[in-house]
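> call design_seq(struct)
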């Protein structure tokens, strides 16, 4: 008799369902600032790393250049990010404006509320275990081939 544990269901589906639920939780809080979670993340990367070339930013965020360009547009239009000429005529640099730094700080406070809510709802011990399991799984899975991204 086979007593080995056999996973049931689709891991991809289960992870996507969990991710949607977690995203809804964060977006509900961060959204109070007028930002989506993805916009907060992008703004945070630029505040920490900027001024930075778009290609380098895309690599740091592990997203494709077209996704980055699409996500930059509303933040530039809102006046939170700037795209300036780089060292030569062909390069560009993304940087945060003062208003962008203020918006990021406001959103960071809302993000903290969301994180504390997740910790309370799931239990801090379970969140620590979840982070460790995710990190272990990420390390065990082979990296994407060169040129592909986590989008």
């Amino acid at each position: 008799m086979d007593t080995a544990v056999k996973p049931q269901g689709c891991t991809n589906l289960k992870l996507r369902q969990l991710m949607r639920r977690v995203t809804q939780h964060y977006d509900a809080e961060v959204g109070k600032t007028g930002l989506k979670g993805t916009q907060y993340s992008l703004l945070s990367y630029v505040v920490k790393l900027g001024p930075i070339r778009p290609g380098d930013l895309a690599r740091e965020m592990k997203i494709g250049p077209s996704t980055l360009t699409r996500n930059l547009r509303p933040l530039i239009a809102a006046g939170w990010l700037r795209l300036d000429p780089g060292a030569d005529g062909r390069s560009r640099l993304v940087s945060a404006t003062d208003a962008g730094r203020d918006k990021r700080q406001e959103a960071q406070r809302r993000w903290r509320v969301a994180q504390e809510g997740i910790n309370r709802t799931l239990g801090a011990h379970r969140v620590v275990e979840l982070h460790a399991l995710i990190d272990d799984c990420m390390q065990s899975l082979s990296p994407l081939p060169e040129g592909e991204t986590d989008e």
